[in-house]
Amino acid sequence: MGTPLDEGQLLETQHAFDSVAADYDGPRGNNELIQRMRLAMWDAVYSELQPESRLLDLGCGTGIDALEFAKRGHEVVATDWSPQMVERTRARAADAGMESRVSAAHLGIQQLDKLDDTFDVIYSNFGPLNCAPDLGAVAAECARLLRPGGRLVFSVMGRLCPWELGHYALRGRFKRAAVRAARGATAVGMNRRTIWTYYYFPREFYSAFAEHFSLESYRGLSLFMPPPYLVDYYRRRRHWCDRLGRLDDRWGALPLLRDMGDHFLIVMRRP
Questions:
Q1: Distance of alpha carbon 12 from its chain centroid, rounded?
Q2: CATH number, domain at 38?
Q3: Distances in Å between the alpha carbon of 61 and those of 50, 98, 116, 183?
Q4: 206 lies in a domain?
Q5: Could you list the residue range(s) of the whole structural domain that residue 111 is in?
Q6: Residue 2 forms part of a structural domain
Q7: 7-20 and 83-95 are packed helices; what angle lies between their axes, rounded to 10 degrees?
Q8: 132-164 pLDDT per residue, tens
Q9: Residue 1: inside a domain, yes or no?
Q10: Cβ distance 107 to 42 under 8 Å?
């Protein structure tokens, strides 16, 4: 899994997300490709929920997912390593009148030992777990916090994204095309700051959880469809890209293909 992040790298990542929190929902909120991936995540979580379930959101961002589940009658503890993101989540919950169903806490994924609760589902969307310094420790804490039979539903940035390889290689940016191949923590720029990131194949990711969880399923996201940062390309060729999206829906869970894509969506069960 590579060398764990040190405190300085964790703080760099925190400050990077703090720096974009105020505007995070702007271009992202209007990004059709992000919304398509978000809906896939919601569908996967909904398939695991019973009425009035308790959920733990790891890396909640501005709280879009937490509010969605709260509006459906569930209770969500939303956590994030960025205090500015947590404030955005609290404000979103207050604006929606959902403060009784959404509890937001400034808590990094590496700090789950501070929680003392039980949840029916633990989920994480758009790669916060790629910034976790020790996946094995995360797995052990999730096993402690999740009820027997409960599910983990995670959207994780994958190691092999064909669109990204082609996009940067065709422009001669071979170093950028190979970023995901790194075995340790990789410095990824955002807003002139640094996010320290690990990339995984699905089975590589699952190996950290295998001691505590059984693997239910996984599938690729944005495999045939362009990744979200190519949304302008999508908008210029919407009809053709939507056809590619149907291939994602049909074939994204097939062997070999499910190991590729901008993200993968993985579901695990606590026995």
A1: 19
A2: 3.40.50.150
A3: 24, 16, 22, 26
A4: yes
A5: 7-269
A6: no
A7: 40
A8: 999 999 999 999 999 999 999 999 999 999 999
A9: no
A10: no
